[in-house]
Amino acid sequence: MRRLSPLTVFVLSAFGWIVVLTLLWSQVSAWTSHPVGVLSHIALEQGTPMWVRQVHLKPGSMEVDTAIAVPVPEAGGRRAEISIDADPARYAYGLPIFLGLLLAARSKGLAARAAMGYVLLLPAQAFSLTLYVLMQMVLAAQLNIRFLRVSQWQMELIIYGYQMGSLVVPTLTPILLWLWMDRKFVADVLVRGSGVHKASATVP
């Protein structure tokens, strides 16, 4: 029976670990993601004081009371300030991806690397969560810059940041972090094991 290549073994192992760890993470994400909410809380109150009145944070949930007032339908022109609910774990699923890659690579100093990766992932996860909350404010204000009291380019920057924070950052960041931490494994096992160096050597 033909032996599987190191690359195939790694991919299968990583996939298995990520599935298992994601299931486990879903049970404890309210606590492991709480620091994400803390960082987002600080960013919202310090970065957008004209919008955010107060942030209520507890494990598994974050409620943002805003100063953005929008018209209430059938209320005689009266306005109401909006509140935004968010889950700090919404974009924190990169943690099981990162840990799964570490385990599949059988990294040395696994505990230290896992702890370091957990801390380094927090700012990226907080960025995604913060832009999600800001995007919900923009949508609640019906993309009206008068309600938001910002310029058009500022609103478009929030929309672009939200797209990056929701589509790219949560999955790409843990992979890039692992590639940096385990670059020796990538070079010795994945690149050489896949024969990439041999193929490139034959190119005239």
What does this entry look like structurally?
Strand 1 and strand 2 form a beta hairpin. The longest helix has 31 residues. The chain has 204 residues and is of the alpha+beta class. A three-stranded antiparallel beta sheet has the order 1-2-3, with helices on one face. Helix 1 packs antiparallel against helix 3 and helix 2 packs across helix 4. The C terminus is likely disordered. The radius of gyration is 22 Å and the shape is elongated.
In summary, what is this structure?
The chain has 204 residues and is an alpha+beta fold.
The number of helices is 9
Q: Gyration radius, to the nearest Å?
A: 22 Å
Structural class: alpha+beta
Percentage of residues in DSSP E strands: 5-15%
Morphology call? elongated
Main sheet specs: 3 strands, antiparallel
- Please estimate the helix content: 55-70%
Distance between the termini: 35 Å
Number of strands: 3
Low confidence ranges: 196-204
List keywords for this structure.
elongated; alpha+beta; about 200 residues; disordered C terminus; 9 helices
List the helices and strands and how they pair.
Layout: H1 6-32, H2 34-47, E1 52-58, E2 61-71, E3 79-86, H3 94-105, H4 110-140, H5 145-148, H6 152-167, H7 169-181, H8 183-193, H9 196-201
Antiparallel strand pairs: 1-2, 2-3
Helix pairs in contact: 1-3, 2-4, 3-4, 3-7, 4-6, 4-7
